[in-house]
Amino acid sequence: MKEVIIKDKQKYLKDNYPFGNVPKLTDKKRCLHCDTIITVGDYKVFKDENDEELIYCPQAPDCDGTVIDWFRVD
Ligand SMILES: [Zn+2]
């Protein structure tokens, strides 16, 4: 996987977030794969083997969780 450096993280998130409610960069989520509370703005972007960009957990590449594995923190 190749990391992609994102300049405008809020805009990238807005354009690529797979669900309706785009979180703020300061929001906290729980990544189910590494069971860690993450700050959304710390996300990383990697290209997969199909050259598709995916939003990853900040712990990537140690964690293989992506944006769909993040859950709301109450
Ligand atoms: Zn994770």
In total, the number of strands is 6
Report the uncertain regions.
Answer: none
The shape is globular
In DSSP terms, counting alpha (H) and pi (I) runs of 4 or more, how many helices? 1
Number of domains: 1
Helix content: 10-25%
Task: Enumerate the strands of the largest sheet in spatial order, edge to edge or round the barrel.
Answer: 1-4-5
Biggest β-sheet description: 3 strands, antiparallel
Bound molecules: zinc ion
CA distance, first residue to last residue: 32 Å
Radius of gyration: 11 Å
What structural category characterises the helix and strand content? mainly beta
* Assembly state of the chains shown: single chain
Q: Give helix and strand order, one letter per element, not per position.
A: EHEEEEE
Hey, roughly how much beta strand do the residues contain? 25-35%
Mean pLDDT: 96
Notes on the structure:
With 74 residues, the chain is mostly beta strands. Helices cover 11% and strands 30% of the residues. It has one domain. A hairpin with a 4-residue loop joins strand 2 and strand 3. The protein is globular. The model has no long low-confidence stretch (mean pLDDT 96). Zinc ion binds next to loops. Zinc ion (ZN) binds next to loops.
Topology:
Elements: E1 2-4, H1 9-16, E2 28-31, E3 36-39, E4 44-47, E5 53-56, E6 70-72
Antiparallel strand pairs: 1-4, 2-3, 2-6, 4-5
Bound molecules: zinc ion (ZN).
Residues 31, 33-34, 36, 57, 59, 63, 65 line the site of zinc ion.
